Amino acid sequence: MRTEQPTTIHLTDYRQPDYLIDETHLTFELFEDHALVHSRLAMRANAAGEGGALPPLVLHGQDLVLQSVALDEQALTADAWQVDDSSLTLQPQAREFELAITTRIEPQNNTALEGLYKSGGMFCTQCEAEGFRKITYYLDRPDVMSRFTTTVMAERGSYPVLLSNGNLIASGEHEGGRHWATWEDPFPKPAYLFALVAGDLYRIDDSFTTMSGREVELRIYVEPENREQCGHAMDSLKRSMRWDEEVYGREYDLDIFMIVAVNDFNMGAMENKGLNIFNSSCVLAHPDTATDMAFQRVEAVVAHEYFHNWSGNRVTCRDWFQLSLKEGFTVFRDAEFSADMNSRTVKRIEDVTFLRANQFAEDAGPMAHPVRPDSYMEISNFYTLTIYEKGAEVVRMLHTLLGAEGFRKGTDLYFERHDGQAVTCDDFIAALEDANEADFTQFKRWYSQAGTPVLQVDGRYDAASSTFQLLCRQSCPATPGQTEKLPFVIPLRLALLDGEGREMPLQLAGETQARGTETVLAVTEAEQLFVFENVREEPLPSLLRGFSAPVKLVYPYSRDDRVFLAMHDPDGFNRWEAAQSLAVDVLQGLIGIHQAGRPLLLDQRLLEVHRAVLKDDSLDPAMVAEILRLPSEAYLVELAEEADVEAIHHVRDWVRRELATALAETMWSRFRQLGDGAGAYRADAESMARRSLRNTLLGYLMLTESSEALSVCVQQFVEAGNMTDRQAALVALVNSPHEQQKHAALEEFAQRWNAYPLVMDQWFSIQAASPLPGGLERVQGLMKHPAFTLRNPNKVRALIGAFANQNLANFHRADGAGYRFVADQIIELNRLNPQIASRMLTPLTRWRKFDEPRQLLMKAELARILASDDLSPDVYEVVSKSLA
Ligand code: TRP
Ligand code: ZN
């Protein structure tokens, strides 16, 4: 852990590196109580700094024991270099030289899971963003790209598999039961893409023939007991490879592509060149143990990491301020892939729901930052929803503005122009502009201005002139360090619906003919008027279709308008959106009534929309499930000026019960019609949609507290042929008042699956998220469960993360005990794993959203964390910014 106060790094301070590293030769000697890392670097002064004396060479390094340094094969004495907490400095004597360094590290004690560490019995690495400096002294920055050759040496019995990036070029035996393997990666890469794995792993083999006819070996490495759970990841990989060829013309480049699954991992997965390392939760999927959601996550993450081979590896980032260059683009790519593989509309609904509940909250909070941040203290804190999800929305808008063909011309030029380079978001935009003769000067404000814009639209119909005027106003709230915002370019996809819900022809004033029945307007001014002509009757506009921009849309729809759109909008996404916004409106109204102490009465229109949707066989069942699922508590908190935790929880729960009671008959008949869930499990979109609706209905039916629902639920729990159905039944039981059945089910589940860590994560999560009273005590009890450990990030997320993020009622207990508990865990995690500690802080940083007593309690816990010893830069940055 660094001891000095972390400093702030600014984008405007970017300078080219003084030195470059043409070749990197690494040798790892792995032992149980330490590892030796020998590096030999072929270096040269960067031509950009030519002339004058050679500058000192400052290498990054952290938590290393330096054992030796040699310049051009001359060992240096300790007076020839300076070492501190974070660097090694020495003075080169020539423009080109070879630097050899040996460091000693202790992977077995590395609980931060950054650099070289042990997970279970295996050695593995995580170098993004700045983990390589915990392996050896190096120029650990993405604009220094080098060709790597890596030799791994270890004991053969425990570590029969030795892997690194690229191709295996040699291997052999050593005395004393040790062996070695040498890997060579022909593609220059920054250190953050370096990877090494050594362990006792089972290998699943497959192959892929690329579009030019080259054969690529595909391998997934897992612990032997997981060998049956890799089929879905392998299929997803092959589909991703084909899709990137078809949609982007991008072919894989090495002869081998490897994925390794590890249990202890800070994030989802990592795109190391030719050797992706995955959190096992994003690889393993078997119908008996993984839910449909897990299957979809595996597919998406495999695709995401694979797509990075072009958007991230072949073309990488110049500096970490450009992180969204690879992440936003790659999330957009994986979202489009998932949309093509499954239901496009449902995928979009899921992503928009997630963005609005979470990224909007981030954008309105103390850590708000632009898609391309101006400054940071700890880069690990900037792997955010803004960089990833909002970044993807920005790329999506570019795709919308250019059209699929224009966008493809732009990405072709981008990859061609910058292959092998480390570039910026501006370079990406320039390629799209140059390929399309477009001008994105104003559009680029999406990269520099933080905050969620509000787009206020008003419509006025004039029957006499048959015109419809659309007045658009945009504004953007202040965010930390940014008070004045300039107008964005907001692509507004829309249609105008007639009284039957049909789309009418769209002809803008000044145009000689209609442009079709759906169009994209570019809103570029703070205030802007669009006039449609030849509009034969008063229309109802269907706005921001497909969520064409990450903004908050305000339009003065009446509840009847929303009902109409929910029933008739030909656009599936906007049908859902109308039902959703109707539900938001109803819930917000009831929250006010509840606060005023008046009795609750449900607007029958919400009920009728749900009834109609339930009876509509032409709708995708997954869509029906999405509509029935009311806006989340988290989203209602986000929308509130001051969130009333008790009222939000009470009212949402009450509405769910009202719907269940009133629609019980319709729900039962649809539930039965969807089949009993038996029959062979299939992971296709259609089967998943069926299970999704059926289990949503089971959740509702259990709210009626009928004995029939209980027995159907218990039966489903016992007899389910897959984890999706079993888990849905468990969730319903855990959230029910049926103590005996609940405990029996939890007990049975834990007994049966205790050897499956990922299933136990679900078991922890379901209980941690249960809103029933006494939640904190239950979570505290579970912390002592033998399957729980603070050292495994998945366990921390499953128990503490689920409690703090998905259990509004219990986390926000009025006495502050929920906050105190989470703060205690953060203080403990700060010592073990600063990245995870920092992530667990998010719910506490949202204190401004709540009532004053809660604000005080939350701030007190943040202050207590800030005052604790040995604060990591990760935790320090988030806590200090959220208290500022
Ligand atoms: N580049 C990874 C991705 O696919 C992100 C990542 C994986 C990461 N592991 C990490 C970032 C650890 C920071 C720390 O999105
Ligand atoms: Zn990524």
UniProtKB/TrEMBL annotation:
The keyword Cell membrane does not apply. SUPFAM superfamilies: Leukotriene A4 hydrolase N-terminal domain, Metalloproteases ('zincins'), catalytic domain. It is an enzyme of class 3 (hydrolase). InterPro entries: Aminopeptidase_N-like_N (IPR045357), Aminopeptidase_N-like_N_sf (IPR042097), PepN_Ig-like_sf (IPR038438), Peptidase_M1 (IPR001930), Peptidase_M1_dom (IPR014782), Peptidase_M1_pepN (IPR012779), Peptidase_M1_pepN_C (IPR024601), Peptidase_M1_pepN_C_sf (IPR037144). Residues 560-884 form the Peptidase M1 alanyl aminopeptidase C-terminal domain. It comes from the Bacteria. Residues 451-555 form the Peptidase M1 alanyl aminopeptidase Ig-like fold domain. GO terms for molecular function: alanyl aminopeptidase activity; metallopeptidase activity; zinc ion binding. Residues 233-446 form the Peptidase M1 membrane alanine aminopeptidase domain. GO terms for biological process: proteolysis. Signal peptide: none annotated. Pfam families: DUF3458, DUF3458_C, Peptidase_M1, Peptidase_M1_N. Its EC number is 3.4.11.2. Residues 58-193 form the Aminopeptidase N-like N-terminal domain. It catalyses: Release of an N-terminal amino acid, Xaa-|-Yaa- from a peptide, amide or arylamide. Xaa is preferably Ala, but may be most amino acids including Pro (slow action). When a terminal hydrophobic residue is followed by a prolyl residue, the two may be released as an intact Xaa-Pro dipeptide. Its cofactor is Zn(2+). Keywords: Aminopeptidase, Hydrolase, Metal-binding, Metalloprotease, Protease, Zinc. Aminopeptidase N is involved in the degradation of intracellular peptides generated by protein breakdown during normal growth as well as in response to nutrient starvation. Belongs to the peptidase M1 family. This is Aminopeptidase N.
